[in-house]
Design brief:
Layout lengths: L1 E9 L9 E8 L2 E8 L7 H19 L12 H25 L10 E7 L2 E7 L3 E5 L3 E3 L6 H9 L3 H4 L21 E6 L6 E5 L1 H4 L4 H9 L4 H14 L6 E8 L3
Antiparallel strand pairs: 1-10, 2-3, 3-4, 4-5, 5-8, 6-7, 6-9, 9-10
Length: about 250
Amino acid sequence: MIKNHKIVTDKGIVRSENQDFAGFSVKNNIVLAVLCDGMGGHYGGSIASKIAVKYIIQYFEQQFKITNESIDRLKQDKITKWFQKVIDKIKKHMRKEAKNELKLEDMGTTLTALLSFNDVFYTINIGDSRVYVLSNTLQQLTTDHSLRNHYIRTKGWSPEDAETIVSAAALTSSLGPNKSTTMEIHKYKAGKGIKKFLLTSDGIHDYIPKQVIEMTLMKNKKLKIIGNELIQRAINGKSSDNLTAIVMEWENE
């Protein structure tokens, strides 16, 4: 189970506004961590990310009726349906905001989340923010919803060939009033060797090699220090984006 956590964020050295937003909540010993990265270049990115985090946390705290005792008996499709309903409600809130301010019609955000209880956890992903798990090595649990990965998945291209596509990193899924939204959710059984979980926006993971993220998470330091070190390493790596991480420590029962 998740023992403690820390959220760290920074607007970085290029952007004038931090459009990332993150949240963390616990209900009936069930943990929900969520990170959203408002889409740069689209008006209202910070509004989109705040709406998404606000309402997914709110609906979790007020309407997630599943208890820690009953959740293990549920099939994955029950959890998937609950999150899909929440995503639909968030899009409705965004459309309402866009009616009041037309410029917000193009706003969008990524959304990645971790739902954890006992020795079971789910990853939820829209876009290219990420969930990692650290055991003996670091494993990326989510797959970026990018044009690059679309060609790899649907057309069988090699990663090397897909990397040559114009705008390879462009999002194929995001959350907004008029965005095409595909939610990907996966269930995992926690192994004995898990040490930490990490959620990141691309301002971090696009500018640090995976082995450096792993090395940093392996350190026996306070979670805030680890999170700030990841941010500083990304800035040193010439990150031109906002930077946000949720670092969580796992305790085996």
